[in-house]
């Protein structure tokens, strides 16, 4: 069953594999800078900033409440969760779900996102397919089923060829995803060339709560805070402290700082 | 007057790096900054590249501290040329007006920033500091409270509010502010110590117990906090000396105070390693501790 290994022309390596890598990389870098140029300012309203900080404060109260006295913790918990006029109970924000149709700024954002990411990918993918067609480029190191053949071997009409041998278009797509870590290295985190991350965001953004959904966030915080109890971390701090001598090593050194440098 | 680089024999790169370190650590050593940066700007401006803008900002604030309006004006003009219409530069302009005590104009400047961008925290805080500079403490407290209702997460503001309350002797509210800081920074021994001091000042048995606990916590976080060590000793001795406590509590607190006194002695022994001046201070500490023991029992 073992098929004879195909020996590819080394010219393929020089003139196909490497150029595709370079092209993908450079296109990614260009996309990054273009996305910076096209970026529109995200204006936050005062209310949004305020609400996000309140949520952070409540979370900190839950996590670090054990460092303040019990009375203070209860006072704050009461302020947030009280039945009649606790902050989380009382505050209802107007929630406007920003659908792309009604909110013009989101529409332009989406369009820009599409233009900078999807369009170049399609264009370049098509061009590579047209230019580097008719031959096998590389072999993936794991065996694939025959179902993958029409997808990965576009342009090569050999029925008997192992599905592991792929064409240049698939090498291009492999590069698009593989060079993600290179982009992080060179352009820093959060770069505009990181296409798969953007696609992930687009998919999950539709499913997860939009930023205007503070009411749900408040409700979730209220529940979490209700469940939190106060375990004072300082119950036996004196005993812990006095179990050993203080570490005063190197506290008084002879050298004094002189001047600026 | 010799220049800084001649006095300390350093290159311009070292001066630039020193400025960066001061910037990152948020040092307020304005005179040193002015000395170092003035030379850097005058001699080596072209070599600094884009760093020069942030150095202008740093120097401008330092120059305002040292009443060097000439230097501040130069920096402001350069920044205005480079970043026209920037809110950050406008704020610096407002600070300069504050330094010249032109509070009305400074207030107008900050209002114009807030009109453009209501979420700008820097402009709001500068308006509050105008009130503080004019001595209107109660107004400053009121404005700061309103600010904190909007921006609950601003730790710098909580600390400022606690200072203002301490000045007004409203220790309960100051303690509240410090609790916020302790929650957001549980490993910072200085907040624990300051909270303990406020509780100690408030007085009353419960508050003394709390202060003793928080002094101990500060010591646990940083074994070398001498102020917390003395605080622990004083709060423990006060509780032990109070007539309202029962015998068990008294015994525990006497034990704590004795331990603290021991540690103080140890520290003083380590400090001088037996030199003549140190012997006097060690003796003074021992006498002080003994006298407190006598008043207690």
UniProtKB/TrEMBL annotation, chain A:
Keyword Membrane among UniProt keywords:
yes
Which cellular compartments is it found in?
Answer: Endoplasmic reticulum membrane
Q: Fetch the InterPro entries from UniProt.
A: EMC3, EMC3/TMCO1
Q: What Gene Ontology terms for biological process does this UniProt record contain? A: protein folding in endoplasmic reticulum
Which regions span the lipid bilayer?
A: 12-34, 115-136
UniProt GO cellular component terms: EMC complex
Q: What Pfam families is this protein classified in?
A: EMC3_TMCO1
UniProt entry tagged with the keyword S-adenosyl-L-methionine: no
Q: What membrane topology was assigned to this protein in its record?
A: Multi-pass membrane protein
Mainly resides where? endoplasmic reticulum
Name the UniProt key words of this record, in alphabetical order: Endoplasmic reticulum, Membrane, Transmembrane, Transmembrane helix
Top-level taxonomic group: Eukaryota
> What does the record note on quaternary structure?
Component of the ER membrane protein complex (EMC).
Q: Which family does it belong to?
A: Belongs to the EMC3 family.
The name on file for this protein is ER membrane protein complex subunit 3
* Native source species: Esox lucius (Northern pike)
């Amino acid at each position: 069953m073992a098929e004879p290994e195909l020996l590819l022309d080394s010219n393929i390596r020089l003139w196909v594999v490497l150029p595709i890598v370079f092209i993908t990389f450079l296109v990614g870098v260009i996309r990054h800078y273009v996305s910076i140029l096209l970026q529109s300012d995200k204006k936050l309203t005062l209310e949004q900033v305020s609400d996000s900080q309140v949520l952070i404060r409540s979370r900190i109260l839950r996590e670090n409440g054990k460092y303040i006295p019990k009375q203070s913790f209860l006072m704050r918990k009461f302020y947030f969760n009280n039945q009649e006029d606790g902050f989380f109970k009382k505050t209802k924000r107007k929630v406007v779900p920003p659908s792309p149709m009604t909110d013009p700024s989101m529409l332009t954002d989406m369009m820009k996102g599409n233009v900078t990411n999807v369009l170049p990918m399609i264009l370049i993918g098509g061009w590579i397919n047209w230019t580097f067609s008719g031959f096998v480029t590389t072999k993936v190191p794991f065996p694939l089923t025959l179902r993958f053949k029409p997808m990965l071997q576009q342009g090569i009409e050999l029925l008997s060829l192992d599905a592991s041998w792929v064409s240049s278009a698939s090498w291009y797509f492999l590069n698009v995803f593989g060079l993600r870590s290179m982009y992080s290295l060179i352009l820093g985190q959060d770069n505009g060339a990181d296409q798969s991350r953007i696609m992930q965001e687009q998919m999950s953004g539709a499913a997860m709560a939009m930023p205007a959904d503070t009411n749900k966030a408040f409700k979730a915080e209220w529940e979490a805070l209700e469940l939190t109890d106060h375990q004072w971390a300082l119950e036996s701090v004196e005993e812990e402290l006095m179990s050993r001598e203080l570490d005063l090593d190197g506290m008084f050194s002879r050298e004094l700082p002189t001047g600026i440098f | 007057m010799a220049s800084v680089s001649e006095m300390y024999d350093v290159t311009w790169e070292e001066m630039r790096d020193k400025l960066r370190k001061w910037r990152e650590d948020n040092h307020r050593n304005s005179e040193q900054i002015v000395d170092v940066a003035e030379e850097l700007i005058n001699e080596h401006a072209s070599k600094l590249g884009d760093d020069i803008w942030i150095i202008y900002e740093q120097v401008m604030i330092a120059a305002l501290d040292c009443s060097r309006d000439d230097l501040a004006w130069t920096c402001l003009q350069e920044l205005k040329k480079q970043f026209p219409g920037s809110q950050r530069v406008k704020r610096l302009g407002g600070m300069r007006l504050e330094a010249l005590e032109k509070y009305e104009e400074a207030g107008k400047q900050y209002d114009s920033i807030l009109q453009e961008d209501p979420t700008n925290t820097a402009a709001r805080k500068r308006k509050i500091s105008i009130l503080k500079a004019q001595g209107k403490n109660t107004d400053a407290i009121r404005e700061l409270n309103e600010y904190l209702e909007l921006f609950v997460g601003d730790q710098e503001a909580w600390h400022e509010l606690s200072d203002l309350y301490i000045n007004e002797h409203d220790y309960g509210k100051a303690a509240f502010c410090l609790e916020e800081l302790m929650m957001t920074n549980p490993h910072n021994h200085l907040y624990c110590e300051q909270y303990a001091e406020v509780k100690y000042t408030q007085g009353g048995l419960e508050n003394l117990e709390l202060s003793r606990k928080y002094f101990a916590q500060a010591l646990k976080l940083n074994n070398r906090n001498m102020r917390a060590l003395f605080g622990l000793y004083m709060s423990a001795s006060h509780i032990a000396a109070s007539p309202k406590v029962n015998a068990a509590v008294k015994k525990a607190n006497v034990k704590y105070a004795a331990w603290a006194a021991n540690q103080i002695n140890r520290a003083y022994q380590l400090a001088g390693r037996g030199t003549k001046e140190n012997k006097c201070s060690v003796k003074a500490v021992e006498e002080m501790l003994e006298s407190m023991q006598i008043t207690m029992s």
